[in-house]
């Protein structure tokens, strides 16, 4: 009883600070006077603006007011064309300003000031616009979904707006103009918008807001101020075109008859944004060109699951917050690996060879409609079509060429409904479908989601249910329908927080055709408890503890295996920010003996793993310093299980020579001196090996920005992974291993990937860019595991390289601007 009473008191104490914060209210003021966006704030129009001052710190010291010499003074007003926001960020000396040319949407080590609008005042969806002391812009869509897009901020979303900055002896002054085409809002004659301003000073890591924020409380938008009485503004016709022209020159020394080493391509196309209403926008890409996106970080995959790559194509990263709900959308499926890519090799007959087998499907076009009504209903629709792909197979004797279809014409579709409710709550429905031509199957997944918060936004109950259906066109396969759900309850505000969750997926459910999905057939239970110290005291600014527990069982037994138990884990994490603005943390993970149903790679088999303990620590310095770094060390030890041991070391460091030029280097070393895992299948038997696995990844980034509109970046990455098998074992029916001394074949692996991405970018007009990109890709592999790292690098650089040089020009055309010119 005493423990329950103490817990209750702790929970109540975490609410005390909430009552002390009252959101600010600001009357909206209109101007009819002209403003020149030059960063000087000397026009008469600024006398018509509303003033925002008396900022409050929420990090690191909650509730502390700004000192006069470092205060923030801002002004905001509007007219028929858009919103004007300007002001001064005062500093004691100009040297106190942290500044770096990082490129658009690049955080770097910059101070910044940002404007956050919640135009529908639903506490769930917002728009952010930031400017740095050197005049670089960031913008983002903001949502209450902390599990998506950088914790609820989608920086891939871009709008076209104006800004200017001037640095002077008292700090820096800024001006921003947001045309109404850069924001979404209703047609109401009188509107009240959620509003907040945030300023961050990086050298001392303080962050202030105009309307005070309590970081103990769940949500940022839930604590916004109010911009009241905006009158007679009208959403404009939003028609924006982005025509492009590109030229590619590619060289690969194939040195094969009838195949050129040099190839070239000239293409053009267009992206379009059309405002269908005040809230909804149609985005379309016609004849898309993604040839200049950053190269993937390829690795040697020794796991039974697919590697998940980042999405670098702007169309699929920008404004996709609605489509990320439910985790049913993995955009790399669109234009990804053909579903029958490897079947083509099985189709090769005696005397034949494959001349060409494309590893990616070609995207024909894609479009999406997204937005939210004034009643809080978000609607999203995304559709994309890829063309069929074929492997080209040649008969070596007759020269006859035939095609083997690896991917049919495919239509991908996502439909989302997301309704905002009171108390920062919501309900959603998502449907994904993949319709394939030819004889291939179709796939459909539907999911309903909900997230409900109590009136004080302290507790949350959320969950989802989903049904998948595979429609096979062949009578040889039966259609399949599966089910999945997840439900969780927790405390989301206050210093003490907790959450409990259950996830269930039956044996037939899959969302893999348009989502990233590894496995089904499980019932998982999770528990989380955490406590935060966010008020600076003694040596720390912030300190966090949390404990995570989970247990996993099969939903249905596999074959003759007499257990449903899969695994369980206990994780402990601690991290803190020191008063001298560096972070550090320690973490541990204990995993008891468990059953691995996936490592055998044969259905109906299990591999019994021993218990293990992992311990790690990390350290991060203040990245506002000229030299900054990060380091992490981790080691996992198995007990009474082949004496296995795994260690991981990673570090990165960055040096800024000046505001224009910086160098960053990162290295990750994973060493498994005595590991154990699946190697191959011989006579339907899973063969495992005691092995040494060493992977090294080196990445070098150079950045030189000439101005806030022009920059050059260079990125080189070398990844090397060497697998040296020492003893072979056969997996038995009981999940244990028996030694196989008769396997003498060389199953060692040595895989290297080397990539260069060098990009010159020039924003020559608002929203218009010229990009020149050089890309180099090299792959080197062998079965020689007795090679040192530097020799591996040398062999890789001497291998055949694919070099690609491209020029792409994108021009921004706005209907309203063209209309003014025409007049």
Question: Any chance you could write out the topology, listing elements then pairs?
Answer:
Blueprint: H1 2-13, E1 25-27, E2 50-52, E3 56-59, E4 72-78, E5 82-90, E6 112-118, E7 125-131, E8 137-143, H2 149-152, E9 153-154, E10 162-168, E11 171-179, E12 190-201, E13 206-209, E14 225-231, E15 239-251, E16 262-275, E17 281-286, H3 314-317, H4 343-346, E18 352-356, E19 363-372, E20 377-386, E21 389-395, E22 401-407, E23 410-421, E24 425-436, E25 442-453, E26 459-471, E27 480-491, E28 496-505, E29 522-533, E30 540-553, E31 565-578, E32 583-591, E33 594-596, E34 607-609, E35 612-620, E36 627-638, E37 645-656, E38 661-682, E39 685-707, E40 710-731, E41 737-739, E42 749-765, E43 768-782, H5 789-797, E44 801-810, E45 813-814, H6 815-822
Parallel strand pairs: 1-14
Antiparallel strand pairs: 2-4, 3-13, 4-5, 5-11, 6-7, 6-12, 7-8, 8-9, 10-11, 12-13, 12-14, 15-16, 15-44, 15-45, 16-17, 17-19, 18-21, 19-20, 20-23, 21-22, 23-24, 24-25, 25-26, 26-27, 27-28, 28-29, 29-30, 30-31, 31-32, 32-35, 33-34, 35-36, 36-37, 37-38, 38-39, 39-40, 40-41, 40-42, 42-43, 43-44
